[in-house]
Amino acid sequence: SGLPKPSFGHLTQPFDTPEFHKLYRVVPIRKVHSLTITWALPPQEQYYRVKPLHYISWLVGHEGKGSVLSFLRKKFWALALYGGNGETGFEQNSTYSIFSISVTLTDEGYKHFYEVAHVVFQYLKMLQKRGPDQRQVIWEEIQKIEANEFHYQEQTDPVDYVENLCENMQLFQKEDFLTGDQLLFEYKPEV
């Protein structure tokens, strides 16, 4: 209809309540121990060409020497770690962006629940202190990997492709309708 899409950017603190600054323990249906830390951040959708949360999740999710997961595995506290943002709908919109780190704990890791959380926060503090300036090589590596995945992706069902394209038309500039949800275009350390 030619109308501009609605913006909810004026709702800048959707989770500004004391209940969202707490630790919740939930008894799972299956026997699994998991620690999930979630942050509500300012909206990031305008940075789709930079994808800062994708970059941070890459660093947090790294499994090699010196990584959070490597350290937690050596202590026999964790089996897996995932960090990220789905970049769609609930997790990223004009009001906020969600960033989560989820750690699958061992029984021993569950006993050291607070230490595991402390390690995650220490790692994030280290990333913050060091800053992204030294990590352009990592960003370029991510960019190349995402470009390869984009160029060699399997053909999708036409209905799914059209649906994805229609969603992209609501989020990205015209030149990025086909690629904006998958590729990294610009390295901007300040973002």
Automatic annotation (TrEMBL):
<dbReference type="InterPro" id="IPR050626">
    <property type="entry name" value="Peptidase_M16"/>
</dbReference>
<dbReference type="GO" id="GO:0008237">
    <property type="term" value="F:metallopeptidase activity"/>
</dbReference>
<dbReference type="Pfam" id="PF16187">
    <property type="entry name" value="Peptidase_M16_M"/>
</dbReference>
<feature type="domain" description="Peptidase M16 C-terminal">
    <location>
        <begin position="3"/>
        <end position="136"/>
    </location>
</feature>
<keyword id="KW-0479">Metal-binding</keyword>
<dbReference type="GO" id="GO:0006508">
    <property type="term" value="P:proteolysis"/>
</dbReference>
<protein>
    <submittedName>
        <fullName>NRDC protein</fullName>
    </submittedName>
</protein>
<feature type="domain" description="Peptidase M16 middle/third">
    <location>
        <begin position="150"/>
        <end position="190"/>
    </location>
</feature>
<keyword id="KW-0482">Metalloprotease</keyword>
<dbReference type="Pfam" id="PF05193">
    <property type="entry name" value="Peptidase_M16_C"/>
</dbReference>
<keyword id="KW-0645">Protease</keyword>
<keyword id="KW-0378">Hydrolase</keyword>
<comment type="similarity">
    <text>Belongs to the peptidase M16 family.</text>
</comment>
<dbReference type="GO" id="GO:0046872">
    <property type="term" value="F:metal ion binding"/>
</dbReference>
<dbReference type="InterPro" id="IPR032632">
    <property type="entry name" value="Peptidase_M16_M"/>
</dbReference>
<dbReference type="InterPro" id="IPR011249">
    <property type="entry name" value="Metalloenz_LuxS/M16"/>
</dbReference>
<dbReference type="InterPro" id="IPR007863">
    <property type="entry name" value="Peptidase_M16_C"/>
</dbReference>
<keyword id="KW-0862">Zinc</keyword>
